[in-house]
Amino acid sequence: MNSNVSDSSNSSSSSSDDDDMMMNTLHQGAIILSHSITRNNMIIQHLLEQQNEQVFHGGSIPGHIVINRDRENAHHRLYNDYFSDNLVYNETMFRRRYRMSRSLFIRIVDAVKDHDRYFQQRWDNTGRLGLSPIQKITAAFRMLAYGVPADATDEYIRIGESTTIESMKRFCRAMVEIFSEQYLRRPTSNDISRLLYVGQKRGFPGMLGSLDCMHWKWKNCPIAWAGQYTGRSGKPTIILEAVADYDLWIWHAYFGLPGTNNDINVLESSHLFSDLTQGISPPVHYVIQGKEYNMGYYLADGIYPKWSTIVQTIHEPRGPKKIYFAMKQEACRKDVERAFGVLQSRFAIVAGPVRYWRKEVMHDIMTMCIILHNMIVEDERDLTAPIQIETETLSPEVEMVIDENTRFQDFISRYGKIRNREAHIELRNALIDHLWEEYTNSEN
Predict the structure, then answer these.
(1) Last residue of a domain, one of 162, 182, 202
(2) DSSP 8-state symbol, 65
(3) How far apart are CA 207 and CA 303, in angstroms?
(4) How many domains are contained in the chain?
(5) How confident is the prediction along the chain (444 residues), in pLDDT tens digits per residue?
């Protein structure tokens, strides 16, 4: 009996202790909840005070500050300055600052906007309109035309540095993808007929243009690569090989070899004569001193090899014939030098040292500048000038040789004809006599 009472007493005591512990836990939880609510209220009050005081909060990256650039008004100001009906700056000022006519620029903007959704103006998550296509592309053009850093466009266009860099990279890639097929094409039959016509008028029948190389300084070249990219200038450079004609259109561009290479190494690596070697290039027919030729040639300086497709000047010419030939050859060969000069003056980014790290980005920038250069040449070309007369020529008929051995033998034969030194000397001597006869006839 006593033991039962004792057990009941113990059970009652244990239940009372559990209730006390539960009450204590609930009390502590209430205190914690009260502190949490008070702390949240203090945080909200602090944020409201900051908002009232117009304090800018940090961005998503530590140390960065969110800047209200007022991009909407910047777009309206840019549009009213250059693109509205009552524009502030006329066509001449637009041409000087954008390096091209307004109509050509609008054509480029429309094409790039349709090609890459990045350049389409969209609403962001806060309900604000993003940057417009002309803002992003104008920022890219300012970097290309003036060679300025990315943040230099912020004050007028109201665009951040990282956005400007991304816009420039994506703009170059889009331009290469859209226009390279048309404006980096190899000469068609009609192009070659026009080039031959112009060459004949200038005293060089069969001339297709001038060949030379240009170096582009690479400021941020990695130390591990500096040795192979540093040439005679003492600074790392990347080489551009180009062929240009009389109106500065660049028909061939090969970019990317390190600056330690010379013009001969670049020529051996480039694809300049690949179509001719494979037998798929458009036909070229001309006559000099009564002899017919079926391979065009390029004017070049003395470093290039003596091939039948390259005509060099004469170093230290002696005699009136050779002196006159050297003078005429060097004058016509300046076409490619002028093309390099105009390319660098239009786009200062390729005149100064490039500051990017990746070679793919630099390749896109150089290729895009050449495309824009050719587009400007086409847009400003005087189509009424007699020098633009074209004659229709038939497309090349290529026989498909099934026999691999025959195809290889034809390839070797064409390869040997291109590099024939005797044919080079014979062609140059014929041009010397042709120019002298033309000069003496004109004097009479």
Answers:
(1) 182
(2) B
(3) 19
(4) 2
(5) 444 444 444 444 555 555 666 666 656 666 665 656 666 666 666 555 555 544 444 445 566 667 777 888 889 999 999 998 888 989 999 999 999 999 999 999 999 999 999 999 888 777 788 889 999 999 999 999 998 888 898 888 889 888 999 999 999 999 999 999 999 999 998 999 999 999 999 999 999 999 999 999 998 888 998 898 998 888 999 999 999 999 999 999 999 999 999 999 999 999 999 888 888 888 899 999 889 999 999 999 989 999 999 999 998 889 899 999 999 999 999 999 999 999 999 999 999 888 888 889 999 999 999 999 999 999 988 655 544 444 444 444 444 456 778 888 888 988 899 999 999 999 999 999 999 998 887 655
- Tell me: do 213 and 132 sit in the same domain: no
Is 326 among the domain residues?
yes
Kindly provide the b/e burial profile for residues 127-143, where b requires at least 16 CB atoms within 10 angstroms of the residue's own CB.
eeeebbbbbbbbbbbbb
Question: How far apart (Å, rounded) are the C-alpha atoms in residues 147 and 355?
Answer: 10
Q: Decide the pairing of beta strands 286-288 and 291-293.
A: antiparallel
Range of the domain at 169: 71-182
| Same structural domain, 263 and 147 | no
Crossing angle (nearest 10°) for helices 102-115 and 359-380: 140
In this structure, the answer to whether residues 314 and 347 fall within a common structural domain is yes
Q: 116 exposed, middle or buried (CB, 10 Å; 0-12, 13-18, 19+)?
A: middle
Cα–Cα distance for residue pair 269/263, rounded to 1 Å: 10
Does any domain span residue 58? no
Shared domain check, 146 and 222: no
**Do 163 and 288 fall within a single domain?**
no
Q: Tell if the pTM clears 0.85, that is, is over it.
A: no
CB atoms within 10 A of CB 296: 23
Return the closest-CA partner of residue 242 out of 369, 416, 100, 98. Answer: 369
316 domain residue, yes or no = yes
C-alpha dist (Å) from residue 45 to 37, 52, 116, 355? 12, 11, 44, 47
Q: Are both 369 and 334 inside the same structural domain?
A: yes
